[in-house]
Amino acid sequence: MMNDLDYNFYRVLFEDLDPARLMKRFLELLLKIQNVERGSIWIREKDHFVCVESLGGPSQIDIIKGASIHADEKSIVGWVMENGRMTIAEGGKDPRHFKAFEKHMQLKSALILAFPLILRDGQVYGVVQIVDTSAGGSRLNLDDHYLRILKSIVDMGAIAINNALQHTDQIARNRKLEQTLREIRNRIQIIGQSASFLEAMKKVRDYARTDFPVLITGESGTGKDLVAMALHNLSSRKDKPFVVQNCSAIPETLLESELFGYKKGAFTGASDDKTGLLMAATGGTVFLDEIGDMSRLLQSRLLRVIQNKEIKPLGESNTHKIDIRIISATNKNLNEAVKEKTFREDLYYRLNVLPLHLPPLRERKNDIPLLLKYFIKRESLELGHFQKRISDEALSCLVDYRWPGNIRELENFVKYILSTVDGDMVGVTDLPDNYKHPAHRQLPGGESLPFADGAPSGQPADPAGRPDFPFTGLTWEALDKAYVRHLLEKNNWVVTRAARDAGMNRSTFDSRMKKLGIRK
Ligand SMILES: Nc1ncnc2c1ncn2[C@@H]1O[C@H](COP(=O)(O)OP(=O)(O)OP(=O)(O)O)[C@@H](O)[C@H]1O
Ligand SMILES: [Mg+2]
């Protein structure tokens, strides 16, 4: 009887999200309710019905679990799938019975009770069979009321199983997405199509075939680190270490021990031998970033290493042969530094065998839309967001913008808009003020700034073809303010340069800024 059920079937159905375990427990529950030993669960997969769980089959030749029946074949499973109704069938006699499976079994099915597994929307995705193998099928309780209660348990089970299957499917899909994301993140993608950029990339490929030192120059954020790594990855040293040392961020003595290493006891505090990076990178590439900031003392030591291809760690008497390729980078003008004697000329020529200049973003404007698209795609994927689009008008502002921080600034800009813009279209009003066209910019008084690169713009021309006078409605002071701000922005807020553009000296320009209340 159903009342005798010592099972808490709610727990069976709802506490397990593992489909295989859940189906087994579900089937056990049904068999227990009907007091029989044999049963199976079938799921539709394209044009087949596959048995995903089977209990009570003869153990050595349990050919049922994992078996499949073609949808065109006559079978009870197929009939229930198609009709979406429960059925009772006599094994061997019912014309729908698919007998092939039972050929080798000692205990044949006498009576088969089959229920559809139905989703909330009515779709039948599977079938559960409860099989009585006793003579004449006398054990199954076929009382109408009893079967109705059984059916409602099966209906609940059907939903629970489907939830578990979808949950597992979702986990598998998430894993796959995470994997793809990891691959995307680890892959070095260098984006650009402008002529000057492609020229630089060709050099990267050419240089990668040699072992000569490369000096990468370019403003901050133009991709020097990225390109150095790409160069290493394209070279025959790619499976050997790629070691990076920033020469500007740390004190001279620390940089010295990082690069050249030392012997235990070489100085107070040297309690162990330390292998320097130049030695650790053997066979590979050393990337010396911000080389322009290296002290004269270390410049001499580095020069010696390059000339002799050997290294002598501090406090050690022996020298070690090393085989490294040196890539260095700077955003300083090393030529100037050589003239000013802050950088050794001989070292400069040793490092600058293969020069590689990365152009600033404002000199390759047609890469801007491409880079925006790339970063939006990458970051949206990471955030799990839909990809926002940028309106034509906003894009034209961004292409005109000078990007003093180059690609790093653009990358940060994308993170900013993805975090702050709610809709899926980024418009001009979403842009921070300094990214807008001068014509879109609001002055403190609410007037718009009428300059773009020194020329009045954003104003309609009059029908006679003469440009309309763009300053209408502006007070003298607002105009003055707009002009000073324009010059400052044009010169990245370097006051001396803005003053030069205005044709005045710095202190006059400074006091004008003060008077107008413009602060850096
Ligand atoms: N062409 C490019 N395509 C895709 N991403 C790029 C490209 N160039 C640079 N980046 C990305 O822009 C950021 C800045 O690049 P990177 O650190 O290489 O610049 P940098 O020239 O070394 O700057 P700094 O002088 O400040 O050290 C990095 O996140 C980098 O991945
Ligand atoms: Mg860098």
From TrEMBL:
Residues 167-194 form a coiled coil. The keyword DNA-binding applies. One of its GO terms (biological process) is regulation of DNA-templated transcription. The lineage of its organism: Bacteria, Pseudomonadati, Thermodesulfobacteriota, Desulfobacteria, Desulfobacterales. GO terms for molecular function: ATP binding; sequence-specific DNA binding. This is Sigma-54 factor interaction domain-containing protein. Residues 436-466 are annotated as: Disordered. InterPro entries: AAA+_ATPase, AAA_lid_NorR, GAF, GAF-like_dom_sf, Homeodomain-like_sf, HTH_Fis, P-loop_NTPase, Sigma_54_int. Keywords: ATP-binding, Coiled coil, DNA-binding, Nucleotide-binding, Transcription, Transcription regulation. The keyword Transcription regulation applies. It comes from the Bacteria. Residues 190-419 form the Sigma-54 factor interaction domain.
